[in-house]
Write a structure and sequence with these properties.
- The structure is a single chain.
- The protein has helices at residues 3-26, 29-56.
- The N and C termini lie close together (11 Å).
- It is mostly helical.
- The chain is elongated, with a radius of gyration of 13 Å.
């Protein structure tokens, strides 16, 4: 996987975790859900990139 894309996906995943934790801490369910969605999207992109890399080799 391209290093830049991997780092970007990991960054989005971490950002999602922070949003989720913040949402839990302050009792904001909307923020918590947004964090989970962001993490899921980053995971999906990362999985797609890994599949592309596998197909190339």
């Amino acid at each position: 996987m391209a290093t830049g894309k991997k780092a970007k996906n990991v960054g989005k995943q971490m950002k999602g975790k922070v949003k989720e934790a913040t949402g839990k801490a302050v009792g904001n369910e909307s923020l918590e859900v947004k964090g989970k969605v962001e993490q899921t999207a980053a995971d999906a992109k990362q999985t797609g990139q890994k599949a592309k890399d596998t197909m190339k080799h």
